[in-house]
């Protein structure tokens, strides 16, 4: 893996980057004053505003644009639901215990880290330049993976390690145990043999109500189940019209064995999920697919990965669906829409790929699955999953509860079915068979189409047929043609019943947020200790910084008026009237990603003009307060760019800095 | 309590009202297909949109308007935090167990229900009209409170019951136990004596991580603690400037003993909380209090309640603060702002009151507390709490962890403190006292100002003083004036250190949402089976309904174009092209609270005009598509009312309905 880069292509220094996130309180380890709690993070004001903006844009891009039915279901869930869905049995990771120290390791992560360390040692021994992957290095140190030694490996071993790593997500518990033995992986803690991998269920258990003596519920690990359980009500709300999608934004929970990598593997996280319900017999075609079919995307397919490679190819989604690499139009439509969403947030296209899941890697319910992955200094991060869950969930819940989780649809064209039908002459049947009449009748009705065809010919030819009816007499019953008639006729079916399939785009908001910040991060060549976060204006936590040139009381009313005016225009602003120099105040807000700055100075008092500063270029224009507010609005709404505004309004070069 | 009424003053029929909420999927019992789980509700599309709008308006009204620092903290919380905050020990309700059936009752609710039933029986016996309180009636039936019998009570007993009910929230476990004995309350299930009240902690416990063998965490019962724990970071983010407020919107959890009343007592709920940190020495004055001081409010003070009455009085908040009924300006400011928020949502002023907590009713941390209560068919519902938590939380967490949860402030004017200071001649001290020197020195330093003053006189007069130093020799040490000097001097203090007090407005979004729907609900005299929800346009789940007059393909492009145009203006719309009549489609959307409807008809195809319909009056105007869209925007943004629009644009009386 190549070294990670900033927005401008310079090497990304993780320490500097992380110091910015801490300094500006984007997020912070939760409960730090209590020694912290692994895998839990709090969002500070800029992180929280950024998260709100991502959710808001998500709602506009998906829910409003596609008329989805947004619901908000509870996080606490009775155990029976996850028993049915399969999560109680299967939603687990594999963990190995060090029998000496009691420490617990996640099996796949351990194998991955040890093999990577050995490959690195091999490269060193061969005198090759070792790319420093800071994140993995830090992880290794933390986990005390001891064997980063310059030991050369056989070429065959190197190849085997590399192939194992490419497939690491594809192994189950038993296979991981075999790999640990085969590669002689010991506890990084104590060097002893680890216990064999054991499944650890990732759901948090809890007890609902005062009278239960044992846990009877879970915190949901995904928002999906609540949407499935309400399917019938949503279909009715949608006036029985198919296809439709439900959507939900909310917290989910996974009791990770060893949380790591900041926001990327946490125990509580915000998800945004869509469940698009579609008729499986429609071929999963999508009416708006034509609108997206020329979208170019970087796709990494499953076969390439199974060969041990990570080489992706760029295709249009139209080509991918046509070649069946992506299974159907609906899945393809959502992959394209997911990409548009990510790009709208400011994600770097060159650091985005869609990776297909390998068979064993997929969740137990999925028929096909693609992840949108974003490249960061911590590697490729799965940020959005897009799975075809088939009819799995609706079927299992329907089977368990008997609820009508299906669609009854009046056929536009009634379906004509040619079939053999049986008529019984009941008046004669009763007197003839007496108490056996019912059993014989049932045996006749139960005849398959194939047998009916055969018997209809027999009746015509022989005038009688012989039937197996085990419950009656010697098990054989003879029927003459005055008792029964079998004819080929046409039946007309007006209503069709089916269980919809589900396409599920599922967004990890925290992972997107973290990766996005890396993608928009850079620093000015003249000041590389300070960063700049170039969020697109609609995404930025705050849109406009208001700075008075001095602390003079004369300037204050102008700031208040600007705040009020901008708020009425729906633009969030912050005043920084601290005593720091203008330059320092702007730098601080470059790190917060504030796209625009308005300076109020003594000229303002004279002629009511103010300056507007662009975060990315640091250039400024000067105009009347009204013109500047209008320009800010145009930029924040995405109707003009800075370049447009800079062409229209007079450049300003005065008032510099510290 | 008088019978509950609709927006137009007609009696509110709960069955009809609830059937509307179910029919339109505002919310629904969660996990219904699994038999349901008490106290958990899912929001369907209109409820979810309404909730999102409430939160959005809340953010604008509080967070943006007052520049609060919004954070998002985790729901999962380590046990140590709630141990310190007092929740592990004190956050409990009192429950009584029926020893025969095992059923559990919440003690205060049981007393309340039984006394109310007896009072009702008394009224019946006296031949008085009994107001039917449907909700309480339903509760009683459910809980099988058997003794609603027409039995007349002594006048003194009636008085005692009424006084007990007025103070019901003021009783602890022991007192509830005494009331149960005194009033001879038995298990409504079996008629046997109940076990004495036992505390049941309302927090959900859980186990974080794979290695803990017992629960080590809780789901938070309020969002506040996360804000307190981050106080130091937030103060720094705010550039050390005080006062400031943090804010948070998120789920909280209470494992209620017996959830009831739909959304009003649930186990998982959305809260929006503000923690306003203020210098206690500022007198808790508020710079913007003058802006709100003339706000009239309905206040029910604590003393009136302790006298067994519920008579509220209307005052301006300025009067209430001046008379110390409301303790301070900051508390008063927030009470007024809370009222403005609720009125902005569409709450009925005549069904809003602020009730002061009685001493025993307050949470363990509160110094004073007022609830905004909304009147509904289920009684007065506490929807917003506004507590003065004093310095309680920051102090206990600081004491426990040693974290700097306080403010260090450079004094504008350095403080001059007159005090007695002690100088020790260390050169002589050591040789004289040898190994005891330290202990003697400490004893001198520890002298109070009072003793110092006394000893300074003694030193002057006698030339020596005698000190108690228990650890040295016989416990007395004599010091001559060459060893020690005590003088009155002036010390200048430049920095002040203090723990802020906290004013906490805390909003139960679900309760507000439910009560609001009751307040805006009414039905047209000509069609009382169907309801209308008159949400103010910014609050309404969907703003505009688009209806084609017929299913003709000619009309479809106009609907698409309108959708697109409205979306660009930031207005959510829905198309209803179902086959129902225009009238039915409008009725459906009256029940969803959609304020505006645009009809596309064959005239549209000719001249591009459409009609705009007002939900509340059902009157319509007709104009060009652009004019209608602009009018819709003005109404949705609150810049024009329907009356304004109806004056400007030509009335339309055609196209009616069936």
TrEMBL record, chains A, B:
Gene3D superfamilies in the record: 3.30.40.230, 3.30.720.200, Anticodon-binding domain (3.40.50.800), Bira Bifunctional Protein, Domain 2 (3.30.930.10)
Superkingdom of the source?
Eukaryota
The function of this protein is:
Catalyzes the ATP-dependent ligation of glycine to the 3'-end of its cognate tRNA, via the formation of an aminoacyl-adenylate intermediate (Gly-AMP). Also produces diadenosine tetraphosphate (Ap4A), a universal pleiotropic signaling molecule needed for cell regulation pathways, by direct condensation of 2 ATPs. Thereby, may play a special role in Ap4A homeostasis.
What name appears for this protein in its UniProt entry?
Answer: glycine--tRNA ligase
User: Which PROSITE patterns does the record cross-reference, listed alphabetically?
Assistant: AA_TRNA_LIGASE_II (PS50862)
Q: Which organism is it from?
A: Endocarpon pusillum (strain Z07020 / HMAS-L-300199)
Tell me the InterPro entries matching this sequence. Answer: aa-tRNA-synt_IIb, aa-tRNA-synth_II, aa-tRNA-synth_II/BPL/LPL, Anticodon-bd, Anticodon-bd_dom_sf, Gly-tRNA_synthase/POLG2, GlyRS-like_core, tRNA-synt_gly
EC numbers listed for it are 6.1.1.14
Quaternary assembly: Homodimer.
A Pfam family it matches: HGTP_anticodon
Q: Does the keyword GTP-binding apply?
A: no
- Cellular component GO terms, alphabetical: mitochondrion
Q: Which family does it belong to?
A: Belongs to the class-II aminoacyl-tRNA synthetase family.
Give the chief site where it resides: cytoplasm
């Amino acid at each position: 893996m190549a070294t990670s880069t900033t927005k401008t292509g310079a090497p990304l220094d993780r320490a500097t980057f992380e110091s910015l996130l801490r300094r500006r309180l984007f997020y912070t380890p939760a409960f730090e004053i209590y020694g912290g709690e692994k895998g839990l993070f709090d969002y500070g004001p800029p992180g929280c505003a950024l998260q709100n903006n991502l959710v808001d844009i998500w709602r506009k891009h998906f829910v409003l644009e596609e008329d989805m039915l947004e619901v908000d279901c509870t996080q606490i869930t009775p155990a029976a639901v996850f028993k049915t869905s399969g999560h109680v049995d299967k939603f687990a990771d594999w963990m190995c215990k060090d029998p000496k120290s009691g420490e617990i390791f996640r099996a796949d992560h351990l194998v991955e880290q040890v093999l990577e360390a050995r490959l690195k040692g091999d490269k060193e021994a061969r005198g090759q330049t070792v790319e420093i992957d800071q994140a993995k290095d830090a992880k290794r140190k933390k986990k005390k993976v001891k064997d980063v030694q310059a030991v050369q490996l056989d070429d065959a071993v190197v190849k085997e390690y590399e192939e194992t790593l490419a497939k690491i997500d594809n192994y189950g518990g038993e296979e991981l145990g075999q790999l640990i033995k085969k590669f002689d992986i010991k506890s990084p803690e104590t060097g002893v043999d680890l216990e064999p991998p054991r499944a650890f269920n990732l759901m948090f258990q809890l007890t609902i109500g005062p009278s239960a003596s044992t846990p009877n519920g879970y915190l949901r690990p995904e928002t999906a189940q609540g949407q499935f359980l309400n399917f019938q009500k949503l279909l009715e709300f949608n006036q029985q019209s198919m296809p439709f999608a439900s959507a939900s934004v909310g917290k989910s929970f996974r009791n990770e064995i060893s949380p790591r990598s900041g926001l990327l593997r946490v125990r509580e996280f915000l998800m945004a999920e869509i469940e698009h319900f579609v008729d499986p017999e429609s071929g999963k075609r999508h009416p708006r697919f034509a609108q997206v079919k020329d979208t170019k995307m970087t796709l990494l397919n499953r076969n390439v990965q199974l060969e041990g490679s990570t080489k992706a190819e760029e295709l249009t989604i139209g080509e991918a669906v046509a070649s069946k690499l992506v299974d159907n139009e609906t899945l393809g439509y959502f992959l394209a829409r997911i990409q548009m969403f990510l790009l709208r947030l400011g994600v770097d296209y060159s650091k985005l790929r869609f990776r297909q899941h390998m068979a064993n890697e997929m969740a137990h319910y999925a028929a096909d699955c693609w992840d949108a992955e974003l490249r960061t200094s911590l590697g490729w991060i799965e940020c959005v999953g897009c799975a075809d869950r088939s009819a799995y969930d609706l079927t299992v819940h329907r089977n368990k509860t008997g609820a009508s989780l299906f669609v009854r649809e009046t056929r536009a064209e009634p379906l004509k079915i040619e079939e053999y039908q049986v008529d019984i002459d009941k008046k004669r049947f009763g007197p003839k068979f007496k108490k056996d009449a019912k059993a014989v009748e049932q045996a006749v009705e139960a005849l398959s189409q194939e047998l009916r065809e055969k018997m209809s010919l027999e009746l015509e030819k022989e005038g009688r047929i012989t039937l197996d009816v085990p419950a009656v007499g010697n098990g054989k019953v003879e029927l003459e043609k005055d008792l029964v008639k079998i004819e080929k006729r046409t039946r007309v079916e007006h209503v069709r019943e089916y269980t919809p399939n589900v396409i599920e785009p599922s967004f990890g908001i925290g992972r997107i947020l973290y990766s996005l910040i890396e993608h928009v991060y850079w620093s000015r060549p003249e000041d590389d200790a300070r960063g700049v976060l170039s969020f697109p204006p609609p995404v930025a936590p705050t849109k406009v910084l208001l700075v008075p040139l001095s602390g003079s009381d004369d300037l204050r009313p102008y700031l208040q008026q600007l705040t009020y005016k901008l708020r009425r225009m729906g633009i969030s602003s912050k005043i920084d009237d601290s005593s720091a120099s203008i330059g320092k105040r702007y730098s601080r807000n470059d790190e917060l990603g504030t796209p625009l700055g308005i300076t109020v100075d003594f000229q303002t008092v004279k002629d009511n003009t103010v300056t507007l500063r662009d975060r990315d270029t640091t250039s400024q224009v000067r105009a009347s307060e009204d013109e500047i507010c209008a320009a800010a609005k145009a930029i924040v709404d995405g109707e003009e760019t800075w370049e447009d505004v800079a062409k229209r309004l007079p450049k300003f070069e005065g008032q510099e800095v510290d």
